[in-house]
Amino acid sequence: MDGNTEDESNEKSTSTCWTDDEFESFLRKELQKDPLSKEYPDLFAAAPKLICKWRQRYRGNPSLWKRLFQKDRVMKEFIEASPIIDSVQRLVISTELKKGEKFTIIDLACGRGYLSMLLSELLPPEKVDKFVLVDKQWPMHKTTPEPHHISWTHIYGPFLENNENSEEDNDQSTIPCYYETWPIRLNTSKVNLKSSKEIKNMERRLFTDKGPIILVAIHLCGTLSLKAVDLFNNNPEIRFFCLKPCCLPGMIHAKRDEIFHLGEHSFDSKLVCVAGKWKKNVWKGPHRTTTKAYFQRWADNLFLGMNDTEASKIKKTIMVQHDGGHQNDFLFAERLPETVPVWDVLRYEKEFLDGEED
User: Fold this and answer.
1) In the chain, N or C terminus with fewer CB closer than 10 Å?
2) What is the reported pTM?
């Protein structure tokens, strides 16, 4: 196995040629290459087994597994989410809930749902009722995904049309129902977070008399981070909030002379908007030294806009990106009382976390 090239390892990791033990060993070696493995040793040690459970779930459906598991992407998703996974795990394990009460975890702009999939395998089911995977690219409930949708086959299995007159053999009929196999159930929710109407509908459905909520948000592009902070500010049912801002807002907001408002805090969009975008994994826009300063102002203003009335909050720089990547700011907030094991770690200062690696 040690003699394989990276391309060969990628190919073999999606095939059936490795045993589960070999697959876990491969993942463990890959993850140990990242410096953050020293900061979250227990989580990085657990990750290979969590991902191997996905492999076991989709055994017998190699095309789905190959689509879902691209080694570099899954590694990146896990590493960049690891500070949030660690905090959520500490919160859930340490919280004494009322009788019959469970957490609901809402995953904003979730994409395929890797974060919730990992947490479902990791967290105790007796303390978490469900995950709600929110993204505008999901299909409507119980419809067949179109090419422009995120396929949810890895979450549910297939949704087959109930056509008693059809004798046509459907290739998907051999795919099992995955929904019941998740330790904590995963539910998708099609919501456009840029639509105020859809957000209000989501709040009414998910945030009213539903018990304590954990709101997680990774990879929120542009002004979606504003929407996430607004959700935390406006919904006291949200016990814990984790945000990792992503892309900066586009220049359209600056050209309109917009002022962004978050609670009692406001700031000029010109401070944080840049012209540029990613095209085929290549950044087309200002140099990273310029965008880094804009991103820092973006994270600072999002943090200032988080309501800290009867809540604790913190902004941390944790080096999940390297080689010039500067999206390393994480925002956390918890409505009082604090969960001590969470905040002991979040307030712990270490040079490594601030990027001063040896």
Assistant:
1) C
2) 0.89
